[in-house]
Amino acid sequence: MISFKQRDIISILHFNKEEILYILDVTKRMEQTDYSQILKGKVLSVLFFEPSTRTRLSFEAAMKRLGGMVIGFAESGATSIAKGESFSDSLKTIEGYCDVVVLRHYLEGAAQLAADIVNVPVINAGDGSNQHPTQTFLDLYTILKTKGILEGLKIGFLGDLKYGRTVHSLAYALAYFGAEMYFISPPNLRMPNDCMEELKKRRVTCHEAESLQGIGKQLDVIYCTRIQEERFADPIEFEKVRGIYRLSKPMIEGLGVKDDLKIMHPLPRVDEMDESLDGTNYAVYFDQVRNGVPVRKAILAAVLGATE
To answer: Which residues are noted in the entry as L-aspartate-binding (predicted)?
Structure first.
């Protein structure tokens, strides 16, 4: 029997295919059935050291819709950390107030460090440019709902693949489902070597390119990401790639893409995706956002033992 009770959600690499499918199945149940009281009396602590709209609010909405309560902060400057309190002491304090922690942090490895410090489940809501596992679950759920399958798809990842933690996590997960992957980026924003090595070990067929030309018509899904200015140490390097890709309806149709192509984006978007796509059948990124609530309901319920 699969159990997520008291389990940390740190990296998608910690889960096998059956466990991933289990969360997707629980998510489907969350959409079909009223579970509004299953986490009554439970408290979620959301600790966000980096800006967030969708992840933080969808976790809060998910917890409240399951009958639970939410505490935490979206700006660490308003906490005792601003007075010099250590990360460890803050977590040990907060642990006494809650049943589960959702953490977003600008440093890679922060979520694992937090999990090592506290005895309640820790859910990684993004640690630097490393991973974002709950986004991966909602991305997979979106693909499953819009394409009807997960197995054997051709997926194109476009944009900032070096710093794009959502790309890293999703690529690892799709490896379980026999995906063929196309990584389209400028040379200085390619997928990290360690990611490519991991995919190679999993025998994933991977292609790298700098343009969608000649590739777009083969794809079942395009996963677009923004160029993340905040991750660049050198502003000059960012300016070199600003606006390098811009998806639009005419551009996509000019590639001769499949009629059932789906375009995804973890959002926020800046200038890489034109609003002309919003009303097309290709665009599923706002559905993707909405899927965040049932997916995070499933994850919260699972780690708190309410799905057993």
So the answer is: 83, 165, 226
